[in-house]
Specification:
The structure is a single chain. The chain is of the alpha+beta class. The chain has two domains: about 1-75, Beta-grasp domain (Ubiquitin-like (UB roll)), CATH 3.10.20; about 85-150, [2Fe-2S]-binding domain (DNA polymerase, domain 1, Orthogonal Bundle). Helices cover about 35% and strands about 15% of the residues. The protein has six helices and five strands; from the N terminus they run ββαβββααααα. It has helices spanning about 25-30, 75-80, 85-90, 100-115, 120-130, 140-150; strands at about 1-10, 10-15, 50, 55-60, 70-75. The chain has a five-stranded mixed sheet with strand order 2-1-5-3-4, with helices on both faces. A hairpin with a 2-residue loop joins β1 and β2. α3 packs across α6 (about 140-150) and α4 crosses α6. About 40% of the residues are buried.
């Protein structure tokens, strides 16, 4: 076990875990931040997406040893009041059904819009590709990303 100093959602936190512990489990099991979800465990579904220095990454396969000097943002840190433009657009377009994938979808969309505030349909589809929604709300997701881009 080793002690790691992390910057998560603007707060400096410490955890004592094995170097190979995935960030998903550090967040959920050691820091009680359960907004980031476990989906597949092999970085293929996107449910566990967080931001690492502003980039969308899959936390289920990201060892804590690779992130110590990075700025990490989780769904809990995207907006204190849940009023980030992407979150507002998600509600406006009634995107969530079961809701399980939504934190990862929102984090991917927010990272896209931070890097490209006015993406084309193709750019949205490419960025969101790989974030699996078993309920099939892909058209609403794309519409919400377009709406959010107009609110930034």
């Amino acid at each position: 076990m080793a002690q790691y100093n992390l910057n998560i959602n603007g707060k400096n936190l410490q955890v004592d875990v094995d170097a190979n512990t995935p960030m998903l489990w550090v967040l959920r099991d050691h820091l009680d931040m359960v907004g980031t979800k476990f989906g597949c465990g092999i970085a293929q579904c996107g449910a566990c997406t967080i931001h690492l220095d502003g980039n969308a990454v899959r936390s289920c396969q990201l060892p804590i040893s690779a992130v110590e000097d990075s700025k990490i943002t989780t769904i809990e840190g995207l907006s204190e009041k849940g009023d980030h433009p992407v979150q507002q657009a998600w509600m406006e377009h009634d995107v969530p059904q079961c809701g399980y994938c939504q934190a990862g979808q929102i984090m991917t969309a927010a990272a896209l819009l931070q890097q490209n505030p006015s993406p084309s349909d193709e750019e949205i589809e490419n960025a969101m590709n790989g974030n699996i929604c078993r309920c099939g709300t892909y058209l609403r997701i794309k519409a919400a990303v377009k709406t959010a881009s107009q609110k930034l």
